Amino acid sequence: MNIGQAAKASGVSAKMIRYYEQIGLVPVADRTSSGYRDYSNTDIHMLRFIRRARDLGFSVAEISDLLSLWRDDSRQSSEVKRMAQGHIDELEVKIKALQDMSNTLSMLVNACQGDHRPHCPILKRLETDPEDEDLSIRPRRGAVDRRLQ
């Protein structure tokens, strides 16, 4: 099947399929005599695996590791469980950070009169550094792992 059909069958966009091929997450598809990509049922199965892993929030690097384990018949489930537990731990940290952000914003919104006056505690908080704020530059979470490129 061509890339459009593979995208529809797997739930992974054609653009992402090309990207996964480019970074080596999936093997480059065979080509038809006319040069079109030709995907097998096995390819579709692998793309669905990747889509489900992405839906659970695994990074491309983690998915690469999961694919390796999936293909290894001698794998130990303890390794897969360890990876999944590590991912849960990361998600819990992100959930706490998001909850802290929500709580702070809620407090600021409740403190804001939202009227015609210029005073706004939301803007005041954004312009003022709290005493204990860590101002070091932090990398964005969830970005693509460039080691795979």
UniProtKB/TrEMBL annotation:
Q: Where is the HTH merR-type domain?
A: 1-69
**Subcellular localization, per the record?**
Cytoplasm
Alphabetic keyword roster: Cytoplasm, DNA-binding, Transcription, Transcription regulation
Q: Which PROSITE patterns match?
A: HTH_MERR_1, HTH_MERR_2
Report what the protein is called: Cu(I)-responsive transcriptional regulator
Main subcellular location of this protein, as a coarse class: cytoplasm
Leader sequence segment: none
